[in-house]
Each structure stands twice: as structure tokens, then as C-alpha cells.
Amino acid sequence: MEISSGEGDTSPLVKDNEEPKIWVVKLLFCVLFLLEMLLNFDSGGTPAVLEFLTVDFRLSPGQQGLLGAFPYIGTLFMSPFAGQLLSRYNPKICVCVSLVLNTFFCALFAFAPVCTNPEGNCAGTYILLGCKLAIGISQACILIYLPVWVDEFAVPSLRTLWMSLLQAGVPLGVMLGYLFSGYLAEQGKMNPPFCHKEVESEFYDCCGLGGFGGSCEGTKWANIEQCCGVEALTCGEKTWNLEQCCKPFNCPGGCWYCKWKYAIFLQVCLLVPLCLACIFVPKRYFITNKSNLLSQKEIEKQAAAKAKKMGNRGTPIKSEINSERERMDSLWDYIEGGKDASNIKIWTQVRILWRSRVFVWTSLGLSALYFVVAGIQFWVTQYLVEVIDVPYSEALSAFTVVSATGPVFGVVFGGWLVDYLGGYKGKQGVARTTKIIITFGILALLVAFPAAFVFSVKALMPLIWLLLFFGGAIVPAAVGICLSAVPPSIRPFSSSVSMVVYNILGHSAGTLVPGVVMDIRAKAEGCKITKSEASEELEPCAKAIMTLGMRIVLLWAFSALFTFGKSAWKAHKSWTKAKEAGERASAVTNVVQPATSPKRGAVPGALPPRTEWTKLTKEEIDNMANAIDDETYDVGVDDVEEELKRRATYMNTGGMMNAAHTEFGEIFPKLKKAQENFEGKVVTVADKIRRVNKK
């Protein structure tokens, strides 16, 4: 089957004006789902082999933290530019170039030269860190585009399922990376590569072979006792011998420490065919804004035709063509959700979000929760092996089971409980849901505190499972509240702000902050916390410092409980205020219709006569301000909406709109000027009420 991606693409898959073939779309979704998993493969693999990377590259705790934080930092840095690239250029080019770069940097990560300097600070260390940062940068375009692609191309009946699968690809990829990397490293420990080593006379005693010399070329691990007894593997000289066996890899930790590279090789080998698939798929399957472009052209055609019909008074300028859109561009439309917020200044949107305290505190609470989860995922394997002395294979198996089941069960249970109790919609629903979150937060803290002070794997792993379960139960409700607490029109912007906060204060900080603290403490005490050899035993001070780092991660749950508590308090106050306002509903201003008012005939688009409106008193203004929540902007009183909307227009024009002009979206200059003055200067409903009254 011939598939071309050139400019004159005439692929039989898609012809001009032909709908995309469903089987091709489904196949491409499978490819993108695999891509989503593989992009997160190394995020799970790095924590699994952190012990090996530490030895091979002489990584300090701070550098280990950077290794986990750099992918998130890179993605965060590139995201604003990625959005612009996807808007300006063919998405296929952006995705394919990003994928090729990601594959290249993954391969370079695996081929980074190990550090042979006992003091560290080798070129290979900085190559390793640079590759992690570049991997995060190269993922930004792909991670941003994939949900957009699903929303555009998914089969309508499967759109929600596909979006859910796409989101599930992230934790699934992390888990597979953790499993494969840990398994290959463990297999390498049990069965290193072929050894080509001649036993030298000064090591005869260490090997327990007396005067027997010679070579053991080509022997496997199982037969190495022909040259050196297996029981002698723990002695320093034997470690030196094994290092020579692995001379092609030049791994200071021994043969099996190089096995972490194989998991990255596997990731690269799987990414290469996905790169080819991306390149050869027709570009028509990547363009998602074609319909938007056509609709904009159609709008301009219709506007030009209307202008011609009205008298052909010359070529309509851009402002006249878009007069309908300009007429609707007021903060009323943004707050009501009938218009997107693309025409509101960024800082105005930021101020609106900042004044919504429920959103602010809930976002900070989720960031603290992600800090704990990311820190546990990154540091717990090394903590189990080095501090609690759990065999690597047992630590790998135990945490795999815990991390695969705890959060999943928690998310399902938390979502079900919130829905069962009435959901999070409305002020009462938000207040009720924040109390549920507080309950889960208290339970999580009750298990996090003892987990920070136990040194038995049988006690620690159940506690971590419960911590991840309660944390997972918080996520669905908290994410829903973050969306519900802001005006519908700026929810996309609020989602972007939330992701920035989560990446900086959550995922990145959870890996970086404990490492930096451990580094500072080690330097202050003069304690060596980095291994130089695989068989080296950490000093007691090093184990104490690693324990400190893990306690920071676990006890960070206190900050999550505090921020969620502030969110619950703000939500409760908002609900209480709404209840009190409901009792004074009769005081809310309504349109006054005097019995003797002259009635005007119904004219489409005409405003009511001036005699039908009354001046608001200060008391009425205060009652209206109390009736509408300043923080959630949930305008729930229809009469107030209509009163203020019409009064804002009426009092600024000083006249009536002509029905003919209204039909075609044209308005008087006075009204245009009034809307321009009104637009962008109002950030709260209460301010809006007062400003309208002044006018």
C-alpha cells in the first residue's frame, strides 16, 4: 500500500474531499497510544535503576533529583512554544520531528560514557542530565497534540473511551518502564555477560583456588567457579576482576550494573518503528484545524455578502466583517461561558483565577499531593535497598504491586463516593466535596506519619499502599473542583495554569527537593553518600541522610492537608454566604414594570423604554454583591444577569438600537465605545455591579 506525505499527496488512503477511513484512524490511534506509553517509559525506568546510575555516574543526591525533575522541567519550558508551533505549522511535521529527537536523546542517554573518576563530575554525568532535559523538551509537542488529535479524529461513539485510554497510557508507560528496567537489571545481576578474564596470581587467595591459575575465557556466570569461587564475589579484589570482565562497557559497578542500558535500548528499538509510521502516514490525518479555517472563511464571505446587501457601501473593513463578534465581546459573555477568553488579557485572567480562592488552594493541595506521589515513586526503591536492606528483587516486586493497585483503587473509590453523595456541582456540592477531600487527607496523613519512622518492609509497604490509595481518592474530586470553581470561558486557561503549578511544585519538586536537602546535609556533616563501587556499604550517616530525604517526601502530606483545609474553609464560607443571600432573595433587584408605563411594540433587538428602568440604591447594590459569589463567579440569579447586562448597554448608549442594524450585527459608535471601555476592566461580579451603577 502506497502512502505518501508529500505536498502533492494523492495517497489512496484519503482522497480530496473524502472522510478519513475509520480503519486507518483506529490503527493510528493504536500507534499513538503506544507512543504515549513509550514516552513515559524512561520516567518509570529511571527510579528502578537509580542505584545503578548512582554508581556508574557517581551521582550526588541533588543530581539524582535533577535526573527525575528535568523531564518535567523540559516539558514545562517547551509547552508555550509547542502550542505556537502546532498552530503555525503542520502538526505532522512538529510531531515527527519531536519524536525523532526524543528517540535520539533516549539513545544518547543509554550510550552516555560512565564516570571513572571517584570524585564524580565527569562528562558522562552531564550528558546524562542534559539528555533527560532534552527528552522532556522533545515530548512537549507530542503530549500537547495527542489529546487534540483524539478530540478531532476519534470515532464519535468511542471518543470518551479513547481519551481515557490516552490518559491511562501515562501511568501504564511509567509502570512498564519500572518493571522492564528493574527486571533486566535484576537478570543482569544474576547472569552477567561472558567473562574473558585471566586470573592473576595475587588474587589466587581471594578466589580460593590456591595455586591454580590460567584463564576462564568464554565462561558464563554459572561456571565461573572454575576460576574463582562464587562465594568470593563479595571481596574487593573479586569486584575488580568482574570490572575487567565488563571492560567493553567500562562499568565501575561490575558486569550487571550495565544492564540498565538494555531497558533504554528496548525503548529506542520500539520508538524507531513509531517514527517511521509517523513519517509515512498522510498529513491529512494530522491536520486538526482545517474545519476551523473553513468556517472562518465562510464567516467572512457571509459578512461581506451582508454588507453588500445593505447598500454596497464599499469593501467591508475587518472590524465590520467581525462586527458580530465584537458586539458579543464583553465580560458578560466570558463569565456566562458563551464566549472563549482569547480576547481577555492574560493578566486579567490571572487576576480572575487568583480571586477564586477555592481554585488557588485546591491547585496547591493537588501539587502537594503530586509531590508526595512523585517522591515516593522516585526514591522508595533506593530507600528500601540501601536503608532497610531489602534485596533488590523483593523491593522491585513489592513496590510494583503497591504502585499498580493503590492509586487505581483509590481513584475509582473516590470518584464513586463523590458521585454517590451528590457530586461537586454548585456551591453546596463544592463545599461537601471539599469536606470529603479533607477526610481523605486526614486518613492519608495518619498513615504517612508512621510510614516515615518504620524500618520494616512488611509494615512500610502496607502503609505506602494506604497513602497512595487515599491520595488517589482525592484526585478526581479535587480536579473537578478546580474546573467548577472558575468561569467556564477561562477553564482552558485555568487548566494550563494548574498544569504549570503541578509540574513545578509537584512532580519536579518531589524528586528535586529531597535530593537537594540530602546534598546539603551530607556536605554539612562531611558524609560520603555516593557509592564508588557496587559492593561498597553506605556509612551510617549516609543512611540517616537518605532516611531524612524519605521523611521529607512522606511528611509533605501535612502541607497537602493544610492547603485542602483552606480550600474547604473558603468553599464553606461561599456556600454559607449563598444560603444567607437566598433568604434575602426578595431584596435582589428585579426589573420594575410600572402599571402606567407605556408599552412599546415588540421590535427585534430593541431595548426596553427608559421609563421601565429604575436607579439602583446603595442597599440594592450591596444585596446584589452579596447574592453573587465573588470567588466562584457562579452567577445564579437570572434577573440580576439580565438587569445588569441591559443596563450596562442602555445607560452607555443613551438611545435605542435600530432593528435592522441589530440584525446584521452593526451597532452605533457610542455602543462600541462603551463596550470597549467596559471590556477588560471588570474582574469580579461585585465590581461589575458597582461600575454599572456609577455609569
TrEMBL record:
Its main location: membrane. It is found in: Membrane. Keywords: Membrane, Transmembrane, Transmembrane helix, Transport. GO terms for molecular function: transmembrane transporter activity. It holds the Pfam family MFS_1. InterPro entries: MFS, MFS_dom, MFS_spinster-like, MFS_trans_sf. Residues 28-567 form the Major facilitator superfamily (MFS) profile domain. It is a multi-pass membrane protein. GO terms for cellular component: membrane. PROSITE patterns: MFS. The chain crosses the membrane at residues 23-41, 61-81, 93-114, 126-148, 160-180, 262-281, 358-380, 400-424, 436-457, 463-486, 552-569. Belongs to the major facilitator superfamily. Spinster (TC 2.A.1.49) family. This is Major facilitator superfamily (MFS) profile domain-containing protein. It comes from Triparma laevis f. longispina.
